[in-house]
Amino acid sequence: MESRLFLLAKKSGENAAKFIINLHPKYFQKDIAEPHIPCLMPEYFEPQIEDISEAALKERIKLKKVKASVDMFDQLLQAGTTVSLETSNSLLDLLCYYGDREPSTDNHFQQSGKSEELEEDTGENDKKSKKADDQFGVTWRAKNNAERIFALIPEKNSYSYCTMIRGMVKHRALVQALNLYAELLNNRLKADVYTFNALIEATALNMNEKSEDKWNNILELLKQMAAQKVKPNLQTFNTILKCLRRFQAFGRLPALQTFREMKAIGIEPSLATYHHVIQLFYHHENPSKGSSRIIYDIMNEITGQKFTPKDPDDDMFFQSAMRVCSFLRDLELAYQVHGLLNTGDNWKFIGPDHRRNFYYSKFFSLLCLMEQIDVTLKWYKDLVPSVFFPRSQTLIDLLQALDVANRLEVIPQIWKDSKEYGHTFRSDLKEEILMLMARDQHPPELQVAFADCAADIKSTYESQDARQTAPDWPANSLNCIAVLFLRAGRTQEAWKMLGLFRKHNKIPGNKLLNEFMDSAKASNSPAQAIEVVKLAGAFSLPICEGLTQRVMADFAISQEQKEALGNLTSLTSDSDSDSDSDISEGI
Question: Could you report the per-residue pLDDT of 437-453, keeping only the tens digit for each?
Answer without folding.
Answer: 999 999 999 999 999 99
